[in-house]
Amino acid sequence: MEVISEIEEFINIGIPVGDWIENFVDFLIANFGEVLGAISEIIGTMIESFEGFLFLFPPLIFMLIITLIAAKVRGKELAIFSLFGLMLVFNMGLWEEFIVTIASILTSVLVALVLGIPLGIVKAHSKIVHLITRPILDLMQTIPPFVYLIPALMFFGLGTVPGVIATVVFAMVPPVRLTYLGIKQVPDELIEAGQAFGSNWWQMLTKVELPGALPSILMGVNQCIMMSLSMVVIAAMIGAGGLGEPVLRSLSTVDVGLGFEAGLGVVILAIILDRLFREE
Amino acid sequence: MKNKIEVKNLSKVFGPRPQEGIELIDEGFSKDEILAKSDNTVGVRNVDFSVREGEIFVIMGLSGSGKSTLLRCLNRLIEPTRGDILIDGDSIMDLNKKELIHYRRQKFGMVFQNFALFPYRTVLENTEFGLEIDGMSKEKRREKSRQALAMVGLEGYEEQKPDQLSGGMQQRVGLARALAVETDIMLMDEPFSALDPLIKKDMQDQLLELYEDIDRTIVFITHDLDEALKLGDRIAIMKDGEIVQLGDHEEILTRAENDYVAEFVQDVNRSRVLTAEDIMSKPLALLYENQGPKTALHKMNEEGLTSIFVVDRERRYQGILLIDDVKDMLDDNARDVKKYCRQVPEIDPQTTIDELFARLADLDTPLPVVGEEQKLIGVIVKTNVIANLASEPDEQVKD
Ligand SMILES: Nc1ncnc2c1ncn2[C@@H]1O[C@H](COP(=O)(O)OP(=O)(O)OP(=O)(O)O)[C@@H](O)[C@H]1O
Ligand SMILES: [Mg+2]
What we know:
The complex is a heterodimer. Chain A is mostly helical.
């Protein structure tokens, strides 16, 4: 017994992980403040533009447009569901939050795809990049999403922008992985056929690899959207607006009704987006 | 005849340290020993051969003998470890990436065992792939692809996706894709192995038919001796990465140079009664009826022939012209070959080998095999028949 407590005492030398991280973040802020500022600026502008655009439509028109798109892309069932779902959101008085959520999800997904798909492509072609990114991606997938809030908060303060950034980090993993996987799964014979007819690397990528990987990439897009949605409530903890906010508010005021309504809003959005962006 | 492809002392070693494998090859160790000693696999071992312009060169051998590796070295899909490859007399070994891409577009078409069609492209889009890669305008490449599809009998299927077609049709698309690019050389890696026997025979016939119209050199891989004999002008047999024998039909069948080849040859399915169609070969040269004695002489000289078959524009058989007849024509200053050519009895494609033997006995000229519409489809020389008779097992059903 004594030995054990002695060992415990011995190994408990108090490694200052927290201090290190803090120092590191301070270092980044001091030296890369401008870069961080620029990122914040770009993302902020994107969110605002999407919001501005989406708010141009009166709710009824917006509902009809989504319904028509749903009818065209997936058929009657989704169209009916969309119409009634959106009307319900409107009736619950959550329309504004709903649109804000869509805007930040559009931004997150767009950024995550713009970064994730090319990274997946590079990863599929470079062993080094693959080996470097693999543990990082593993880590990104296993860390509880709450943890992303901390650096986002430190670098970008409170608000929707850090919320989107935390979301991007979290939702970027599937597009990277599935793009990589899709390209790797293109049969050798097709790659050979591409080479044999004299493709250069760009033709190889655009005419052989990406078309072959498309189903997998689309799956990545779908998962990216779904993971962004799952961050809606969490991002609200650092001040992101939208449907997450009433959920949080309801938690602190034990307002079950409000919490349920906002949650329902997220679910409706999730179902519509999932069905729209899915490879049947 | 000109050499289209020359392969010189070519070796390919797979593994962690290929150079070490090369050294072991030079020291004379076998493929298995090298694998055990150094973890390197010998794919191709000191191979030397050349492919003549316009011939069908068949490479055969058992699984793992290095056929695919050798074929892929020819357009450097696989980088050879040592040796040289000349196409039209120029080495392709020191081409850089860009030049190589250019070369592949200009010189090589390829047909794959498992078709390797792009599942997300339509039949037409698959066919035009090579032309698209080469940067041809959409309109032009569509037209060429349609022509190529017509050549393989796939009109009307342009808008289908490959998975809507049968295996034989898919391979036709693969063939059309290689035909469309109009390169000089066609590389075919067991293109018909995945097809069932009837369709396979059909595809072989179609390839031979196409071969008459297109001006290509074909390197064709198979592990089926029947197929090799049917298609090949010359046949190379590989074992453990080496070419153990190279020659035309007769040489392969009658003079098996080692046990391996002999075993291979014994495998030929001889339980059926061979007919003229099975053993005929392609005429080395043909004379069209409107061509004169000078042309005849030239063609005969080039192929080392003493006689040549005369056909009309539609390839209908007209007769045979012997070297002596050509001399007479030149002496008489005559131009019309039809007046001088002789009538040798025609052979029906279904004539059995025994009947052939009887008819050949007292003839010095080759026999014309004439099919539908009087078309000349092949020739039979004495050696064809004798080689096949000689290797027939005793239990052969006679008539
Ligand atoms: N990429 C590779 N890495 C390592 N070894 C290889 C590779 N490709 C081929 N080999 C080896 O090289 C040898 C020749 O293979 P190859 O594929 O050329 O044979 P093949 O004659 O085409 O056989 P098959 O009839 O089965 O297609 C085999 O021993 C094989 O294991
Ligand atoms: Mg092979």
